[in-house]
Amino acid sequence: DGGITQSPKYLFRKEGQNVTLSCEQNLNHDAMYWYRQDPGQGLRLIYYSQIVNDFQKGDIAEGYSVSREKKESFPLTVTSAQKNPTAFYLCASSIASGLKEAFFGQGTRLTVV
Amino acid sequence: RKEVEQDPGPFNVPEGATVAFNCTYSNSASQSFFWYRQDCRKEPKLLMSVYSSGNEDGRFTAQLNRASQYISLLIRDSKLSDSATYLCVVNGPNYGQNFVFGPGTRLSVLP
Questions:
Q1: Res. B70: pLDDT tops 80
Q2: Alpha-carbon gap: B88 to the closest alpha carbon of chain A (Å)
């Protein structure tokens, strides 16, 4: 089945640690996105990539980093510089033009302990 | 002003009711428009794309008014399973071809 897969579903991080969230898609989409959602809030864009080996900062990129070495993969690293990382992280993909809908993974719920 | 604004909600309606959601967007260069639904603690899922001519899918009707920069979603004969948060989404070159999400409107359909 074609789709977008995020792992892990739940992640616990100690303060001061970096953690990496995985996002893989087999939809042959050029564009991929990372969003953060806090309880009762909307989605905020962290990073996006319209093509392999290129990515751009979104609205809340500070404390996060990404790479796009393969079309299928867009991992997100939450660094120790991110002061309030506890949130629900959503990865999405779409065709590059944005004229068709984005498809989402099931999300990763990150908690700092 | 936010890029995409929606009714603040929540909406609590009885089963069988008709409910309307409103959304406005700030940038007239926006090209594509969508309604997503998001269940509690789940990922957003596409409900329907919104076309200039308006479109209908069963009990759901979406309308777009480009002149007023306004999008609507109408749900007829509400079901308990319609309870969710409804997200208005726009995309366009003005946003670097990114999807910009409204804050969502929560709907609870009551028995």
A1: yes
A2: 10
For residue A34, which residues of chain B lie inside 8 Å, CB to CB?
Answer: none
Q: A67, A32, A73: which is closest to A50 by C-alpha?
A: A32
* Tokens standing for residue B61: 């009707």
CB B36 within 8 A of CB B45: yes
Mean pLDDT score, B58-82: 97
pLDDT at B95: 67
Size of interface A-B (CB pairs under 8 A): 57
Per-residue pLDDT of chain A (113 residues; tens, 9 = 90+): 679 999 999 999 898 899 999 999 999 999 999 999 998 888 999 999 999 999 999 999 999 999 999 999 999 999 988 889 999 999 999 987 777 899 999 999 999 88
Cβ-proximal residues to A97 (8 Å cutoff; 6+ apart), any chain = B97
- Name the nearest CA neighbour of B89 among B40, B15, B13, B37: B37
- Contact of B71 with chain A, judged by CB distance below 8 Å, is answered with no
Where are any strands of DSSP class E within chain A? 4-7, 10-13, 19-25, 31-37, 43-51, 54-57, 64-66, 76-78, 87-94, 103-104, 108-112
Pick from B44, B45, B94: which is nearest to B69 by CA? B94
